Predict the 3D structure of the following.
Amino acid sequence: MEPIELNDPEEIEQFLGKIALGGPGFCTDCLLSDVYEAGLTYPDFLRAHGSDPDARYGNLSPAWANYHIRQGKKVFIVYGGNGAPRRTHTTDTP
């Protein structure tokens, strides 16, 4: 998959609503719900890159392996995949 970067909150929400992640480690049927649970209610930046055969974008597979989502100073990151256990990390940047 080609890297993608979005800055429109509505586009980001539509994009995340179509992402499903399987395989070892962190899995989800809808990445948007996990972003909301992490406290990002109106994300304003998203970067996705890499390729993972256990990830889906709608009905398309493979999808991106790594996701960096930000709202202000709060950041939610999904990394790993493509055979490695997938993990998440949430932080508030200074």
Observations:
- The first strand starts at residue 4 and ends at 6.
